[in-house]
Write the structure tokens for this entry.
Amino acid sequence: MTTIMVSAMIVLLLLGFPMMIPLIAAAFIGFYSMFGGIEQMDFMIQQFMAGIRPASLIAVPMFILAADIMTRGHSADRLIDMVMKFIGHVRGGLAISTATACTLFGAVSGSTQATVVAVGSPLRPKMLKAGYKDSFVLALIINASDIAFLIPPSIGMIIYGVVSNTSISELFIAGIGPGLLILAMFAAYSAIYATIHKVPTEEKASWPERWQAVRRAIWPLGFPVIIVGGIYGGVFSPTEAAAVCVLYAVILEFVVFRSLKPIELYRIAKSTGLITAVVFILVAAGAAFSWIISFAQIPQAILASIGLADASPTGVLIAISIAFFIGCMFVDPIVVILVLVPIFAPVVASAGLDPVLVGVLITLQVAIGSATPPFGCDIFTAIAIFRRPYLEVIKGTPPFVLMLVTVAALLIAFPPIALFLRDLAF
Amino acid sequence: MSELRSSRHASALPGPLGLIDSWLGRAEALMLGAGVLLMALNTVANVIGRFLFQNSLFFTEEVNRILIVMITFAGIGYAARHGRHIRMSALFDALPVGGRRWLMIFIALVTSLVMFALTWLSIRYIGSVADSGRILPALQLPVWWIFLWVPLGLAVTGIQYLLTAVKNLMSDDVYLSTQVRDGYDDVKEPHE
Amino acid sequence: ATWRYAFEEAITDVQGVYASKFKEHIEANSDHNIQLFPYGTLGESADTMEQAQAGLLQFVDQSPGFTGSLIPEAQVFFIPYLLPETQEALDSFFRNSKAINEDFKSIYAQHGLELLKMFPEGEVVITTQKAFEAPAGLDGVKVRVMTNPLLVESYKAFGATPTPLPWGEVYGGLQTNIIQGQENPLFWVESAKMYEVTDVITFTGHNNFTTAVMANKRFFDGLPAEDQALIQEAMDVAFDHIMEYQRGLSERSLEKILEQKPGMQIVRLTEEQRAPFRAAAADVEAKYIEMTGDSGKALLQQFKQDLEAATAE
Ligand code: NA
Ligand code: NA
């Protein structure tokens, strides 16, 4: 059954079917072979609804809307101008700023899809204009957004903490080290890339020029203040911050700057709705697919056939990495954590592994798997928002995946990368 | 891309059916735009209520849930109409025009069949939820109301793909939808 | 045959321990296999409930409170101080209550479910940032509750500001002070790490989290008599096991919490301190009867009789 499902999915995908069809077809096959008929297939629809139920999903349309308003108005330009006045003369500076912005925004907003949109939509055109290739830009945005899984607050870590009975605070702290290490690697790669491809730099700006750029950006600088201040000040949750950003963007562009006409708001909202729909229908179809995988206990069957009981601690860590990596290639990360963590729990315990280390490693795999084809919400979001073909969106991914896998290997070899900060704090 | 602009809400269907179809397109657009704006309003209102007036709106979460379903399922029809569904087209793009056209006809027919099958399943599912009598705890509305957009959106999407197949059968070019010719470079935002 | 059993918690939590015991007994005494599906692996509570009603799952563990959208009367479990506050009375109540063992059985049967067992999961406690001993101490404190009208009513009556927040945002919400409190059974405070982001655990005695195990009725009625008997027997074995497990659970959870966070403050309200909270129950009862009408009223009446019987012993 698993073989037929996966082959059907890949064939339909390659033929060029809308991405929801391979997922739905695989689910159809799963339901049919599980129940020997179509009587129970209503539950595909139940899982469609379950897939788009989480309250945190609303951050996606909200940040898309806010980012689109900012990009079409003046806010995004002014913010980027300001940053460029400071780092425009550094080789790879724009790419490094983009990676950093993705990490920070993702960390705070808690949504990698929202990050792809909010940071990617204003910065991608600037990077293209500056001379970076689109394949590099897209891969950078997607992969840097996924670092956010590791930086608190991280919903993936919260779920892992609850399922595995591990301290969430410790997980949060342990994620920071590997997260920053990845960011540093991405930054180094950006600088090397810019040097090899001779991406031109801008002339170094003078301090008066910089000061003026800061003054022009004073209103848009309210965005980070609102998001960070609002969330850490206990005014709203990360999800709600998205809607508050919409409000602020509307006030800035329609009232303060008067850069957009009121009718534009409706148009932007409509295109936001469209992008949301094409991504969420995949989330919905993916939920039906993962439900039948879970119901048929396919992960249990596969893992039982491997025989992990006698593996060394390092062997267990490697097995966990591979399992979560593959799982997240096809299925929503939260579901993967909920299904796989309990299966691995006895092995982790008998190997005497630190559950915090395991949690960080799993979160890292989730980040890698989400940015890795064929299925990944951030890939879909990038396709929908930037309107580039699938292959173009993923073409630049391999170097980034290589770096992420390197960090995973380093983490297995030197656990202190994650545990150092934790041990310092606890 | 002048064609899209000139046929924003023009339908591929003749006569009164075309009229219904073009109004449906408008309704979908309205659901999308209004849905997203309402979601922002609803969420911000809850923040203001909680922070300024120490009073949360208990229905916020449920209203957002209703809006998400509405946006998603009004949106898939709209996306089908404008050829915006996400797909992996590398192999497809490598084919000559004739091959692409026939492959597109096949893809569109199968997709529309799947959408109609899902429409039927969703009607059955809604029926069973309605029978169960489940209600939303805060709004105290029947749960099945939330799902009403589901079969409608799926059916509209199915019809759009069926029409796409017809459009490709009747023309020499390759069409991703009734209104959009193949190729990523000639696309514009589907504004009206 | 292979039977599927879904529950609402992790395998190591109370429902998981119960389900594992049931599985163990069935598999040791028959050729049947049980597959267990912990929280989230097949969807949320409402999803697994539908799956059990449709027969995709043979067994489901569902807390009646969460069943409120389907069976309004089941929200009776949200009325504060309706369940006994001591372990002995609780044990007797769940074994002998007519409301639970007869009335609820017929209510669930109308929804295609065979009620097999109801059992308590542990005392519900309130965790907050600051200690409180009276409703006045909760003034202006935002306590996260599920969006259930009776819970909202309860916390209003307790003097707090009930605040809805999706489950995934509770931990972060407590950390950033959007909310200052939440309620859950003690074992859950430990396993979901709520103690990491709050400073005080208060035992108010207002509730004991109750859950119910059901089978799909068509499946159950279609079984041969010896299988039905085996299932009932396994349920009884699991029930005895879970009541025994419960005895020390509260202390074990507290111990673990204090080991992780020695500064955690534990407050047990005295009988006098509980009185004003107890008085709040009247408002909630009124709301419950308004929502459920005569059938709810009758059930509530039966509950009170059973409570009297259990505490009289
Ligand atoms: Na994060
Ligand atoms: Na993926």
Notes: The domain at 2-312 of chain C is CATH 3.40.190.170 (D-Maltodextrin-Binding Protein; domain 2). The pocket of sodium ion (ligand 1) is lined by residues A 106-107, 110, 148, 151-154 (CB under 6 Å).
